[in-house]
Structures are given as C-alpha cells and as structure tokens.
Amino acid sequence: MAELDFDFSGIKNLQKNLQTLAQSGNLEGAMNAIVNKMGAVYLREAKKKTPVGPRSIQMLVGHDSKGNPKYETHYFDTQNMRRSWFMDKPFFHNGNSRNRLTLSVKVFNTSRYASYVDDGHRQKVGQFLPFIGTGWQGGKVHGGRLKKSWVDGLDITLHAKNVVENNANNIMNSGFNAWLRSVLNNG
After folding, report:
1. Number of continuous H segments (helices) and E segments (strands) in the chain
2. What is the pTM (predicted TM-score) of this model?
3. Which of 52, 53, 76, 158 is a good FRET partner for 30, with 20 to 30 A between their CA atoms?
4. 122-131 burial, b for 16+ CB within 10 Å, e for fewer?
5. Residues 106-147: pLDDT tens digits?
6. Angle, CA of 73, 77 and 80, to the nearest 5°
7. DSSP state of 96
C-alpha cells in the first residue's frame, strides 16, 4: 500500500492572499496612481509636440542716411505655450452608464493661443506681419504678407491621446501588478 502526501500550504497561502486582497481598500490608491501615470504620459507627449520658435529675430525697420538697412532685435519668450501645460488631480465621476464610476484626470493648456496652434485657425490673406519672412535661417526677418486663409493645426492633443491609448494596457498592467505585489507582500 502506498502513502500519498499532499502539501496544501500553497493553497492556504493563496486563500490568505485572496482574503488580504478582499480586505484591502487600497485599490482606489492604485487606480489613482495608474490614472496619474496616464496623465503624465499625455502631458509629456503634449509638451514634446508643442512648438518652440526662435529666441530672437532681427526686423528691418528702415534705412540709415547712407541707404544701409537698419535692424532692430526683438526677443521672444517662446516657451510660453510649452510651460502652460498642466494636469489636475484624478477625480471620480459618473461614467457612460448609470452604475459605473469613472476615474479621470484633466490635462490642459492655459496659453490663450493653444487652441489655435492645436486645432488650426483662419488668417487674413494679405495682412502684413513684420516678424515673418524668408530670412529665418540668418536671423534677419524683413516681414511678409499672409498668403493662406487657413493654417492647419498641429494636432498636439490628438497625438498625446493616441500615445496614451497605445500604451494604456501596459500602464494599467504595470500599475495593477505593482499594487498586487505590494498588497500580497504586506499581507
């Protein structure tokens, strides 16, 4: 007659871990961390895609008495739109159905012209602007007239949204696994 031995310590540990998970109220903290990470990825991508122009340009302002061109240098704070990206704290709200709560985070830009850069804008054809022209590479700008009635947007927010959506599963899995390890190791 053979004697069979079974080791049930693994099952007892599993039962203990499941009880720890059931009693853990920390899932909300893990969800906050995951949504914060998604918001941070969105914020990083939006900032990376936000354009930054030259720091200064020289504009033709006339000619001196000998007929030589006279330039003035104008300095610009070109990082304004990039520095204007912010993220709020995650918040719960009613989702798309009656019995569902959704955790969201709001990422936004406070620059007054951000929507024009992102979505595109109209412009007045023929309007003279002293800071545009063909001399950007040399740093000297003579001014120019607008030629197109519509300027396409850069789709900054769409790009950031797509990056987050493409990486959402990885972000959620790593966040949930980190939470699971912390609960099971502390339990």
Report:
1. 5, 11
2. 0.71
3. 158
4. eeeeeeeeee
5. 999 999 989 999 999 999 998 887 767 655 455 566 677 888
6. 160
7. S
